[in-house]
Specification:
Shape: globular
Structural class: alpha/beta
Number of strands: 9
Largest sheet: 4 strands, parallel
Oligomer: single chain
């Protein structure tokens, strides 16, 4: 009898979700002609929705998840502005949470891309995706700005681990990513033009400044909710950052684990150099479409200086200082 009731409840939830999907499709058709749009030299058109620039092909999933996603108090979310160390942080967080179940010799990271192990809630979540079910605890990710997160995430006790990368290196990484994915519409967009677009705020899930400052402010006001990490700090001292992450999400390292080298093992397993050399990340596909290899580049700090002129550098630095003025947030541009 209980099993029958469960099946009926699941069917009701599924039917309700389908109604929401139909309503979302209707709303998109109604509002799309009126949303600000930008091509910015890429095939992937962006629309300005809910305060951020959203890739148009993600819009249905974004709207669906904002309406239907139910966060659980034990959920852990890895969140970032795109191309800010997302893949690396996913691998690290997955390894921390699952360290008692796997070793470096049988970890799922050997056969699965970190994006498959820590899935985005932003897209590909229409029914019957498993993220719409109610399980006790999940390890998830998103590129949503804080202001656009589903209300259940803000209101629950779930934890958010946020990674911020300086805008210069983030812009370079996104420029390369768009090129590798073949997203440029009319030839390759010049990188200095791309910098202008990015610093003006018209990047994926941008404006960059709103994204970073939204989570920075929340981390100050609600430190038990948001852990704010800097990519550059992680590159300088990964051990200290790993201990902070583990403590924050409720999986602290014991003294015995530290003595036995657990932190060093996770660091090595999840390193960019290790991940990019795995066969799954050389030949596999993410969402059966996007080459895994495109999610692993150099991951270096400060290489943006090779891509712009000194005069452009000065202009963009002034923009950065103006945008961050008074926030208390400072960003490192090199190590």
């Amino acid at each position: 009898m209980d099993r029958q009731n469960k099946l009926e409840q699941d069917q009701t939830k599924f039917s309700s979700s389908l109604i929401v999907v139909e309503d979302v499709d209707k709303k998109i058709k109604e509002m799309l002609p009126f949303l600000p749009k930008t091509l910015e030299g890429t095939i992937s058109e962006l629309v300005f929705y809910n305060g951020f620039w959203c890739p148009i092909y993600y819009l249905p999933g974004v709207m669906f998840i904002q309406r239907c996603f139910q966060a659980h108090d034990k959920d852990i979310l890895v969140i970032s502005n795109p191309k800010s160390g997302t893949t690396w942080l996913k691998a690290l967080t997955f390894s921390i949470v699952n360290r008692t179940h796997y070793t470096r010799f049988n970890t799922p990271l050997l056969t699965s891309n970190p994006h498959d192990l820590v899935p985005f809630i932003d897209h590909n979540l229409t029914p019957p995706n498993p993220l719409t079910t109610t399980i006790a605890s999940r390890l998830l990710s998103s590129h949503f700005p804080f202001s656009a997160l589903p209300e259940s995430i803000k209101e629950s006790k779930c934890r958010i681990v946020y990674i911020c990368r300086n805008p210069f290196d983030s812009a370079v990484s996104l420029w390369h990513h768009c090129r590798e994915m073949g997203l440029y519409k009319d030839g390759e967009m010049h990188i200095e033009d791309f910098f202008d677009v990015y610093f003006e705020g018209r990047g994926w899930y941008g404006p960059y400044w709103d994204h970073v400052l939204g989570y920075w402010k929340e981390s100050l006001e609600n430190p038990n909710k948001v852990l704010f990490l800097k990519y550059e700090d992680m590159k300088e001292d990964i051990v200290s950052c790993l201990k902070r992450i583990a403590e924050f999400i409720g999986y602290p390292f014991t003294e015995e684990e530290e003595r036995d080298g657990a932190i060093q093992e996770i660091t090595e397993i999840s390193s960019l150099s290790n991940l990019k050399n795995l066969e799954v990340n050389k030949t596999g596909l993410y969402l059966s479409t996007f080459p895994n290899k495109n999610y692993f580049r150099k991951g270096e700090v400060g290489k943006w200086v090779d891509h712009i002129s000194p005069s452009k550098k000065k202009i963009l630095e002034n923009v950065m200082h103006e945008k961050l003025d008074g926030s208390g947030l400072s960003l490192k541009l090199s190590l």
